[in-house]
Amino acid sequence: MHKESTIRPSAAREACRRADRAFGGRGFTLLEVTIVLVIIAIGAGIAMPRYARSLARYRVDMSARRLAADLALAQANARATGVFQQVRFNASADGYQLPEQATMTSGSARMTVMLNTDPFFTRMVSAVDGSGASLTLLKFDGYGQPDRSATIRLRSGDHTRTVTVDHLSGAINVATP
Predict the structure, then answer these.
(1) CA–CA–CA angle 86, 92, 97 (5° rounding)
(2) CA 35 to chain centroid
(3) Mean pLDDT on 37-66
(4) Distance between CA 167 and CA 82 in Å, rounded?
(5) Other Cβ atoms closer than 10 A to 167
(6) Measured between alpha carbons, how far is 55 from 47 in angstroms, rounded to an integer?
(7) Cα 97 from chain centroid?
(8) Exposed (0-12), middle (13-18) or buried (19+): which is 162, by Cβ within 10 Å?
(9) DSSP label at 83?
(10) What is the dihedral of CA 75, 79, 84, 88, to 10 degrees?
(11) CB of 59 within 8 A of CB of 117?
């Protein structure tokens, strides 16, 4: 009775072979796993710099579009109300403010955009008027006409965008160098 309940060594090997075939064959060796990990690391090493450049380009594009939209908002509010609207620039702090525009979350707070924080992480390289002087204030009259031309340069990583305001036409444009 004792002999019948024991499994013979050859039967055990045969059971392992059947299990291997049922589950797709043998397992992975340490060398195979290491090679796969090296290939993944090389792919990640190639992809990360491209991802970082793409993210910087996206951030500066988003920042330039936001600035252009806020300038257009001030211009539209000036036309709608017939009252001067201002945009205050602070290039050293990488931000701007629309003093007459309330924020969406608080009716008493004024709209302030800091480009060097989340989600933008962008620098305001320069804000100059048509004569090349530093621009701290841009006014739109009751007809939506700006009081001067303006050029604002934004940068994130290696990417820059230029937002311009034309004094004569009032056009607001985003340009890629």
Answers:
(1) 25
(2) 34
(3) 93
(4) 18
(5) 14
(6) 12
(7) 21
(8) middle
(9) S
(10) -10
(11) no
pLDDT at 16: 65
DSSP SS3 for 155: strand
- The count of residues in the chain is 177
E strand or H helix that includes residue 50: helix 30-81
Top-confidence residue, 11 or 79: 79
Helices (H), 8-29: 9-22
pLDDT above 70: percentage of residues in the chain? 86
Query: What single-letter DSSP state applies at residue 92?
Result: G
pTM equals 0.76
Structure-token pair, residue 45? 């090493």
Tell me 76's DSSP state.
H
- Tokens for 119, please give them: 């989600």
Residue partners of 20: CB distance under 8 A and separation at least 6: 26
pLDDT tens-digit map of 71-107: 999 999 999 999 999 999 999 999 999 999 887 777 6
> Element (H or E) spanning 85, and its range?
strand 85-90
Contact 97, 111 (CB under 8 A): yes
DSSP state of 112: E
Q: If you compute the radius of gyration of the chain from its CA atoms, what whole number of angstroms results?
A: 31
The end-to-end CA distance of the chain, in Å, is 90
